[in-house]
Input
Amino acid sequence: MQEVIKKRVKELFDNNTIVRAIGWENGEFFYDHTPAVFDSAADMDVFVYDNFCASNLSKYLINHCAPEGKTLVLLKPCDTYSFNQLLTEHRINKDNIYIIGIGCDGMVDIDKIRALGIKGITKITQNGDELVIDTMYGEKKCKKADVLLEKCLSCKGKKHMIYDELISENEDEMPQDASKRFDLVNELENMTSEERFAFWQNELSKCIRCNACRNICPACSCRKCVFDNSASGVASKANADSFEEKMFHIIRAFHVAGRCTDCGECTRVCPQGIPLHLLNRKFIKDINTLYGEYQAGETADQRGPLTDYTQQDVEPTFISDKEVK
Amino acid sequence: MQKIKLENINELLQSMAQIGKVYAPIEKAGQVNYYEWNKDAKLRLDVLNTVKSAKDVFFPQTEDLASFKTEGKEISIQAEKPLDEDFAVFGVRACDVKSFDILDKVFIEENTDEFYKARREHGVVISHACNEPEETCFCTTFGIDASAPKGDIETYTVGDTLYWLPVTDKGKEYSAKLGNILEEADESQVNKQKETIKAIMDKLPLKDVTTQAFGAGKTMEYFDRPEWKELSEACIGCGTCTYVCPTCQCYDIRDYDTGKSIERFRCWDSCMYSDFTMMAHGNPRKTQTERFRQRFMHKLVYFPDNNNGEFSCVGCGRCVAKCPISMNIVKVMKALGGK
Ligand code: SF4
Ligand code: SF4
Ligand code: SF4
Ligand code: SF4
Output
């Protein structure tokens, strides 16, 4: 697949359809690919696409769709939801962008492999649904399904929501595990409020306030975040586990409610492994209950349930009747 | 040299906790960081890199400095006092041990920071050798020997046994207080282990990363290099690399209005942030490229400029493992310095 994509992008450079392309570049190891902007066909030699291209490239378009000429972007199925959402919010201009939708059969989480106690990893080869892992301390094996990124465990399906052309072999596949998406949210809902508080306190007190979750988030596209504004009274680089962290995360979750596509990037990048997606999924679940099934980013022209008004909207007083826990 | 069976390590920690607080790599909600040990804590001596480095013990991410209260027309100021009790930090890897030397240069040698200095004086550093270095480790680049980790007391795991070697006077005094929980041991096992570790270090994928091209006096050589733009292009300007780094030392001092008082605190800051060193006219580094360049120039050029050529990176590999976009000091060194 990597070579097919590379060849096609080079063609598009050569026939002047595009002037730059956003993809992934080979890293130091086999798993640490960096998102990259390629300026010419020759640049594409270091392009890479494999099990370790988890980063969602759609947010980079905010800065890269304005310059002269068309920018090509490679989007995996889940990334296209974020792209649509950015279009809806007028943060990017489709006229300047050329999308190749690329197939994906799940991205691997190197940290999950490390958590299995596998150290000094030097190479991974995929053999069917098994990964053969070469390490400095001998060969190890594991099932790919056991080390998929959290976000891939509740894959929304392999279909691209928007594209100019497709390079995909599994467009119609539907992952089997998608139904588990709200399992953990259910578990949290079934806890007592004390238990739930303890759960979040335990998780959020690890937060180092690095802002990686916010900065990677395609829905967090404000030019200046209130938490970066020292005049706001809430700006803080301090991680005070008493209150501060919960406030930051809850405000962020509210702000992306109805706009979060559940792309899973926040959880992926958090250096402290905080399951931030559970906050967002709680909102998604509640929105589904109160307003009917809604998936942000499914199309670019839908109106978000929280930014739209219809006569059928639930009234605040009815919310309790709807039994949102 | 002394030893104790690993299965009895909780008894050792119990005795240590009687001398003073013990900070150690402890797992909480799936991640390992330095927390104060207690008997319910899940010690993870096997984990090489904690998420936050051990610097958190001496230079905590946030600390209160003073509080101000007004009552009527009176303003009272309550200043925090530097720490005044002994403690130990256990399980520190060679790279993190070295990072304390680097922080000392900033917080003790130039101007003395009383809070930091008090913690350094009261803290006993108990290191732990790395049996299975990660592929992201490149401490050898900075002349650090993971098989002999330094500190006040060195410890080694060999098989089912923890070996204990007090090195400094402080370490010896501390060990003497432990009574007879440790038994005498000879060094042969540890020496063998050291050889094994050295052989692994020679095979690490990053073993050839070199600082040769960098160092004091090279500001003009690197400042305007065109590579910075490409290297920083995907950087999202989070603070992950700075906050996990054992040698990043920048901080901010802020006042927090609690409604009843003003709390003045210090917290880590990150040169990757848009409001870093914000002044009346704005941030002197207007683009992410400039901020990104600052972090690496500081480690590879500016710090050596001011500290007899010493680099302010210890090759722990945390930024290599944790950056959301997988950009890091190794890639920067290779892109700018060749190789
Ligand atoms: S990425 Fe994780 S550690 Fe960083 S601010 Fe977000 S929740 Fe906190
Ligand atoms: S720059 Fe990276 S490798 Fe060097 S000490 Fe900091 S975190 Fe470790
Ligand atoms: S960088 Fe060196 S000292 Fe640090 S954890 Fe790795 S091997 Fe050990
Ligand atoms: S280099 Fe990586 S960790 Fe550091 S600010 Fe940029 S994206 Fe964040």
